[in-house]
Amino acid sequence: MPAERIGGVLLAAGAGKRYGADKLAVVLNGETMLWRAAAAMLGAGLDPVVAVVAAGSDRPVPDRVRTVVNERSLEGVATSVRAGLTALQNTPEIAAAVIAPADQPWCGEPVYRRIVDTYRHSGRSVIVATFGGALRNPVLLAREQWGLAERIRGDIGLSAVVRGLSPLTVECGDVGSVTDIDTPGDLERARKAMSRPTTARRPGEERSQQVPDSE
Q1: Is residue 207 very low, low, confident or very high in pLDDT (cuts 50, 70, 90)?
Q2: Exposure pattern of 50-80 as b/e (b: 16+ CB <10 Å)?
Q3: CA–CA separation, 174 vs 103, rounded Å?
Q4: Confidence of residue 214 (pLDDT cuts 50, 70, 90)
Q5: pLDDT tens digit sequence for 137-171
Q6: Cα gap 59→133, rounded to integer Å
Q7: What are the Cα distances from residue 100, in Å, to 85, 196, 215?
């Protein structure tokens, strides 16, 4: 059973074109979306956690989170995946990494914990979260699978290669949601939903799309 460290890669370099502003600076329940996402990874025991941001970003992150600047962020999410995994390469005791976008405020600590626990008990090298049975984020890759990041380009994310590897899937719809925030309308719906205590973990709110290919 693997006992080595598991890192976290938070994809936070997206331009937010559909939102029209820096959506990761939006405050939900007193925390920016970026801070909230990073804190969830830390709370699940991921160590280290790297937040991949665009050049010029000044978004604050928790003290134990390392910021990695992706100078090529405009080329798409694939460059952020590679930048994050590259940042972990020189720490040999990191056996695996959990990779997720930062704009899914309800993909929280319980989801990450379930993925980590699944890895530690199974030892499988590729693990993908499902919500309502649909493959989504986060994705866990054991170190020996990090080379997969070299096979993706532009806004085609890990889903392009992960689906062909018969990954181990773990259902997380009962402990979280991957509803993301791409537009101001998404934000308004999120704020209304967060005002209802049980909504944040209602699996019925997930979108039907599969693993997102962009941040």
Answers
A1: very low
A2: bbbbbeebebebbeebebbebeebeebbbbb
A3: 19
A4: very low
A5: 899 999 999 999 988 888 877 877 888 888 999 99
A6: 34
A7: 12, 25, 9
The CA distance from 165 to 16, in Å, is 30
Side chain identity, residue 176: G
Residue 208, pLDDT above cutoff 60: no
pLDDT digits (tens, 9 = 90+) for 38-79: 999 999 999 999 999 998 888 889 999 999 999 998 898 899
Helix (H), strand (E), coil (C) string for the chain: CCCCEEEEEEEECCCCCCCCCCHHHCEECCEEHHHHHHHHHHHCCCCCEEEEEECCCCCCCCCCEEEEEECCHHHCHHHHHHHHHHHHHCCCCEEEEEEEECCCCCCCHHHHHHHHHHHHHHCCCEEEEEECCEEEEEEEEEHHHHHHHHHCCCCCCCHHHHHHHCCEEEECCCCCCCCCCCCHHHHHHHHHHHCCCCHHHCHHHCCCCCCCCCC
Q: How far apart are CA 212 and CA 158, in angstroms?
A: 9
Q: Is the pLDDT of residue 3 over 80?
A: no
